[in-house]
Design goal:
It contains six helices and seven strands, in the order ααααβααββββββ. With 160 residues, the chain is α+β, with helices and mostly antiparallel strands. It has a seven-stranded mixed β-sheet. It is elongated.
Length: 160
């Protein structure tokens, strides 16, 4: 059986293939035509074609961001529209930009953010309490009375 499944046997009788397909609970055609190793890799991946669940991400408008920053993701997911993120992550929010972030993003762009202060080297979405504007920073040490780090930018979806 191992030699047959590994493709080492050239001519296999149909009755043998039928017995193998019945044993594994798959159709005869699947046994003959599908590369199960490739199928297993796809189904265990996080992608549109895989079988892992994507993360549901609440989309919060820029103007509502600061007032919703202290709410939990579960609550935000019930109050705001959702998008999906295909990747291994938790504690994600989507920020729908309503104004430009100079040199980086335009109104209508969606930033997927890992909410909270992180120590990684990735870009951080930061809010300036004085100017009431968002900007992107690489330095996580900016958290202060003037600046509020929203979180690490995981993905950018451009309006376009």
């Amino acid at each position: 059986i191992y030699n047959i499944l590994e493709g080492k046997v050239v001519n296999v009788q149909q009755t043998t293939i039928r017995k193998i397909s019945d044993f594994f609970g798959v159709s005869y055609k699947e046994i003959e035509s599908i590369d199960f190793e490739k199928k297993e890799i796809i189904e265990s991946s996080i992608s549109l074609h895989g079988n892992m669940n994507p993360a549901a991400v609440p989309i919060i408008k820029e103007s509502l961001l600061i007032q919703n920053l202290d709410k939990r993701i579960g609550e935000l997911a019930t109050l705001h529209p959702l998008t999906y993120y295909f990747g291994a992550a938790c504690n994600l929010i989507g920020v729908l930009l309503e104004s430009e972030i100079s040199g980086a993003n335009e109104p209508g762009d969606l930033l997927i953010i890992n909410k909270g202060l992180l120590n990684g080297d990735s870009e951080k979405l930061t809010y300036n309490k004085t100017t009431r504007k968002l900007f992107i920073a690489n330095d996580f040490a900016l958290a202060s009375d003037v600046f509020c780090v929203v979180g690490e930018i995981v993905e950018e979806r451009f309006n376009g």
